[in-house]
Specification:
single chain, mainly alpha
Length: about 60
Amino acid sequence: MSGMISLTNEELNLVKGGACNSDYGYYFCCPSSKKKFQDNVKKYKDSDYEKAKKYIQFVYECCDL
């Protein structure tokens, strides 16, 4: 669980069932709802467009949303 250290409190609250993965170059966890997914995409897109693209790929491939 060493990857959990780098998560903010906000990101820890978004974890759904512990489904996390770092295979996409970033450490992501599945969002708890579609609304949280949309909020995260907007936040990532504003700060790092590449991170937003990888996050969308992660959610569609690894999460049951």
